[in-house]
Structure formats: C-alpha cells, structure tokens
Amino acid sequence: MTTQNVIVAEELTKAFGDFKAVNAISFQVKKGEIFGFLGANGAGKTTAIKMLIGISKPSSGQANVAGFDVYTQTESIKKNIGYMSQKFALYDDLTVKENITFFGGIYGLSRKKIREKREQLVSELGLENISNKLVGSLPLGWKQKLSFSVSLLHDPKIVFLDEPTGGVDPITRRQFWEMIYKAADQGTTIFVTTHYMDEAEYCDRVSIMVDGKIEALNTPKKLKEQYKVASMNDVFLKLARNIE
C-alpha cells in the first residue's frame, strides 16, 4: 500500500427528491488498500458505489476514481475498475470457460490474452475438472469466487465488491478474503461493502455509514480503542445508539 490516493470523494451526495440516500460523504482510499465500506442494509452503501463506478450521477459534491472524474469521465472509470456484487451473476447458461471468454472480450482483451487468463484462472481456482460445466450448476461460493476472479481479468486499478460474501458459508467467506488479500498484495485497491461487521477486521481501514452519512472512519484497531469496545460489531452498535 502506498500514500497515493486512487479514490477521493468530497461532500458526495445523492438525493431522491427530499431524501438523501448519500449525504455529503468525504473520504480517500489509497492504492493497494483494502477499504471497508460498512453499514446496515439501507445505509447508502450501494448508492455510493453506483456513483463511484460511473453508473449514477451524483446530485452534488465531487469524486475522482482511478484518476477520472465521476461526472465527465465515467467511461474511463469503467475501463479501469472491476465490479462484482452478491446480485451480480455470471451467465448460468454458459460454462466456466465460456464466461471467462465472454467477459474477457467485454473488457477488451485480445484472444491470446483471454486464452492465457482463462488457463491461469481455471488453474488457480482448481476448476480443471468442471471448467466445461454450466456456471448455473456450481455452488454459490464457487460462483462468487469465479465472479471475483473474472472482475480482475483486465488487471483493474480498483475492484469494487458490493456485499460479495452474502449468503455463503463461513469457510467460503474466509477463502474469499484470502483471494482479496492476494489481489491487494499485487497492488489492486479493494473497495468492499458489507454488513458483516466481523469482516471489518480484515480491512486496512473502514468507514461506517449510518443513514447516508459516514459516522466513523479509521483502522479497526483505532475504532475499537476510540469506542472502548472489543469488536467492530460493538463499534457499530454504539454508533447506532448514539445517533438514535
């Protein structure tokens, strides 16, 4: 991790009428950092991500992602990031290999590069025996790990993960986080949203959103010290109670 900021948001806001789903949030994310974007369901995490990845225009404020402006350079942002979520689905009626080939083409990779990446990915995930099976036949955990790997096909500067471990078992969640660590070690910035507060412990820094606002931002260790509690779940509960 370096001191170079690859995401900068200043007073970023998204309003729907009088309701502010994201209310003037400001933060920075460094290159190679695992940045946790935490909060309960409905806190505004997904809305914030949509603005950062260029698919939803902010109502006000500023943001720069991978060196590009979220208002005027959304296509450049999309070329330099990866994205996956719990709801993001690979094509169930395509095989593992066909999905990798398809998304490699979407990301603009050459045929040679797609072949190389496909062989590498299948080998790393240990999918040799099922690479010709339909993705729809795979367990959810395997789908999520494959989705994450596909989001890295084009070597993006930043990967946005929106609730990536929802619905998977604890063992698969741990394996998934091992993949996240590996990507971060190779210089990829990981921006991950989750409502699993224990996953905050795996992040370099975390922000906690409550009702559209960032109410806390620091390392897990410092947040626990600040609020004099033993876990990140306790930090979140204390924040929620104070705001109520």
Automatic annotation (TrEMBL):
Gene3D superfamilies: P-loop containing nucleotide triphosphate hydrolases. Residues 7-236 form the ABC transporter domain. GO terms for molecular function: ATP binding. It comes from the Bacteria. Keywords: ATP-binding, Nucleotide-binding. It holds the Pfam family ABC_tran. This is ABC transporter ATP-binding protein. It comes from Aequorivita marisscotiae. The lineage of its organism: Bacteria, Pseudomonadati, Bacteroidota, Flavobacteriia, Flavobacteriales.
